[in-house]
């Protein structure tokens, strides 16, 4: 039984490593999976020999999900590489004034950056009050409670609408996490 449990643990750790990218990037994911799996394995299980794991259904090595990450600014202090998280030096923020320039904006990713292909990417917006792009805006019969749908391509999103600049405040939920840890342990990365 312990041998089968070890085989399961090894296979799950291997899958976690593939899911998180190249080896070394999966340490946290693998440790979390191992901890969860060990709590399950301590409970009685039905007959299981471990042979079930020898016939892998995986087509081969999975691609690295972080292989297509965009270039990253050198103006930020790197916290983690995969997923990418970085933050500006506090002195650079103070020198920048009241509005943070884009190149100093913090980055907090929880997964790889999505790869958008302009030919195949689309966004569908549907729900009450959405007017189908084929309907006339001057139609008096449409009501705000009607359900409609609009399909937009990546080109539509980039070119069809007027751009606006908005001054807004955005704060990462993990701000001052290290300060909070002096009082009580809190979850989250650096």
UniProtKB/TrEMBL annotation:
Matching InterPro entries: Mopterin_OxRdtase_euk, OxRdtase_Mopterin-bd_dom, OxRdtase_Mopterin-bd_sf
PANTHER family in the cross-refs: SULFITE OXIDASE, MITOCHONDRIAL (PTHR19372:SF7), SULFITE REDUCTASE (PTHR19372)
Bias kind Low complexity: ranges: 132-148
Gene3D superfamilies, per the entry: Oxidoreductase, molybdopterin-binding domain
UniProt organism field: Tetradesmus obliquus
The protein's name: Oxidoreductase molybdopterin-binding domain-containing protein
Source taxon at top rank: Eukaryota
Domain Oxidoreductase molybdopterin-binding, residue spans: 150-186
Region (Disordered): 45-72, 127-148
